[in-house]
Amino acid sequence: MDRLKNKVVLITGAGRGIGKACAIEAAKEGADIIISDIGRNMDSVPYDLARSSQLDGTEEMCRELGVNVFKKHADVTKADEISALVQEAIHRFGRIDVLINNAGIGAPAGKPAHEYSSDEWDILLNVNLSGPWRMIRAVAPIMIRQKKGSIINIASTAGLLGYKHFAGYVASKHGLVGLTKSAALDYAMDNVRVNAICPGPVYDDEFVDGSMTKVVADSLGIQLGEQEEIDLQSVAMNTVVSPTDVAEAAVWLASDESKRVTGTNITVDAGYSAK
Ligand code: NAP
Description:
Blueprint: E1 8-12, H1 17-28, E2 32-37, H2 52-64, E3 69-73, H3 79-93, E4 98-101, H4 118-146, E5 149-154, H5 167-187, E6 192-199, H6 211-219, H7 224-234, H8 243-254, E7 265-268
The structure holds NADP nicotinamide-adenine-dinucleotide phosphate.
NADP nicotinamide-adenine-dinucleotide phosphate binds near residues 75, 199 and 201.
């Protein structure tokens, strides 16, 4: 398949989970791939972020698909690290056609809004909302010069609905949906499209590490299995969403098949938010 042939796709948070699946699905479609993640833990985030070796794993799987790959660690909360990532990517490939803003954190959570510390609140907004904005700030000028680009923000059903005891995450993802709509208007005349994908609960599989969802269950005082069962009962199609399901939607938004689609969001949630 070559729906993304001659395109260069940059994905944040690509060490595991949805980001890894996006890198692999884009590589299957012939894109050259730039992958990034933080590769170290963050203060205030109560679970392990991916190890450096996990990004190596994504790189290897993409290379096996015969595409060019550039990888570099960058923290989306650090403007200097983003700038170095984008500059090196441009030096290597000369263009960036698609930006997939996937890096995100699911916790701190598990308490009412007034019980968050300032640090806990700030880190959620800093990674999940300001992170994509920093990436857009670095990449949009390149896409405007090219007169072509597709920016895909991985939001969440938490960008559309409230979730009890998840005010920080929900606020960050609602913000990301709002950023998506406004940026779509800002760049529409430059042929740079901006869309969001809102996945429902995505569970452990060969790609998803599970530590983020486990901490969510822990913070609600229940076992991971119980959390999965509760989520499953809320999903109209009675099935969980896989990282690859989300990545397939991202490939479509990255491709020219969606050339008239901007400022929207696609829910990939097996009917979770339809009720
Ligand atoms: P995951 O397995 O924890 O992966 C998240 C990725 O984000 C990790 O690769 C991590 O990097 C990266 N990351 C975190 N903080 C970062 C930072 N400051 N700078 C750069 N990278 C950073 O989670 P996932 O389940 O695949 O989630 C991916 C995205 O989908 C997130 O935006 C999440 O909110 C969203 N989402 C997930 C679900 C779900 O049920 N899992 C549902 C809806 C939406 P490292 O690889 O270095 O740790």
